[in-house]
Amino acid sequence: MENFAYYAFCLVAIIIGIIVLKKVAGCLMRTLFFAAIIAVLAALYFIYFKQ
Fold first, then answer.
1. What is the C-alpha separation between 21 and 15, in angstroms, rounded?
2. Greatest CA separation found in the chain?
3. Pseudo-torsion of CA 40, 42, 43, 47, nearest 10°?
4. I need a labelling partner for 45 at 20 to 30 A (CA). Which of 4, 7, 26, 34 fits?
5. pTM over 0.70
6. With the C-alpha atoms ordered 7, 12, 16, 19, is the resulting torsion angle positive or negative?
């Protein structure tokens, strides 16, 4: 019965880890996406409108 509790605990830990990783990765991807858009807009501003 000890092994069953250990495996159940590991299964719950893996599921919680996957959920947390998905939320963190989604937030990081959104942040990187918006940072790239801001960088492109800043580059366009300095290339075309600062002449």
1. 10
2. 75
3. 140
4. 26
5. no
6. positive
Q: Which amino acid is at 14?
A: I
| CB neighbour class for 40 (10 Å; exposed up to 12, middle 13-18, buried from 19) | exposed
Quote the CA–CA distance of 34 and 25 in Å, as a whole number. 14
Tokens at 30, concatenated: 């959104």
4-47 pLDDT per residue, tens: 877 888 888 888 888 887 888 878 888 888 999 999 888 888 88
Nearest-CA neighbor of 38 among 19, 4, 30? 30
pLDDT of residue 15: 87
Place of tokens 């990081």: 28
